[in-house]
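Task: sequence in, structure out. Protein: HTH marR-type domain-containing protein.
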Amino acid sequence: MKESIAFDMLSELTASLTEAGGEITSEPMFEPQMGNSRADFLIDARFFDAPLKLVVEVKRSAFPRDVREAIWQLKKYIAAMPPGNSRVLPLLMADTISPGARALLRGEKIGYFDRSGSLYLSADNLFVLVEKPASKQQARSLNNLFVGSRAQALHAVWTFKDQWFGVHELAERASVSPTTASQVLIELERREWVNSKGAGPSKERILSNPRALLDEWSSYVASIKPKPLRSYYMRMTNIDEAIHEIDRTCDEMGVRYEISGLMAGQIHAPHLSKISQLHCRIDYGGERLLRNLGAKVVKEGWNLGVIDSDPRHDFLFRQRVGHVWVTDPLQTYLDLLQLGSGRSKELAEHLRLTKLGYPNDKASDTD
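Result:
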């Protein structure tokens, strides 16, 4: 499989090296062996009249755990190479390289190239960094954790906090199949977001890198279109009165709901002085509920926004706080990021700092 990747991407790699100012000086050498070590191929190039030999390792996709193995292989191969006139530079090539894997490679000053055309090289008097957006196929590979049942299982992983848990415990808490839970845990291990102990059915994991989980999930959420919001006007003296009425009516009708957005953020981590709009999700029966609440559809001047919900995945982690059901802090944070306004972003970062921990170091870079 990786041989086909190597052949398919080789011309793309050489073209990118040429665009970055390099010159390919010989035909690539495939599967060269050095002692007990083997590289996928070697490329002789020249940058600014300085000879450079690229030692390339190929992966189908690369996450931090895969990268650590590749780094070991590359260093082992280079250590066995005879002295030469060219500067030797290791490079990992893959269809998809995760953000965590890229950071790890840059930290080790090991080059990389992926299907999008992103390229990184670092050597004496040479620095190349070309970052291109992921293709749709790459995005699916990187982001499949954050959608559907997998996201449900990932959310459940977060709720275990600093507790060890097994695959069946995760499946039960997330209301997903053991197969889905197992697949998610394998992905988390590749990303090095969990530690593990034991083996077989008794194997347990613990969340070890919550910051990376939050960073990548929030980046994904910020990159997609917000879920459709239906806007209504509901007569209310104030927001608290509206919440009481929604809770009472939902209880009488047996309809699940959860307050989200700015109000949920304010409930979990008070920060804003005034909120005039209410966001919520409503389960099956919502239209009849809204009629009973006297809510009217409007395009402007709305004070009640109903977020489209999926009963299979929503409401599982909602929390009862006082007299109201609200999205838990993690879901509230993700929902606030999707609202897009300055106040929601400000409240999201405040919530992350005070309730989720692990402040977003990149937040100030995107202001």
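The chain has a mean pLDDT of 89.
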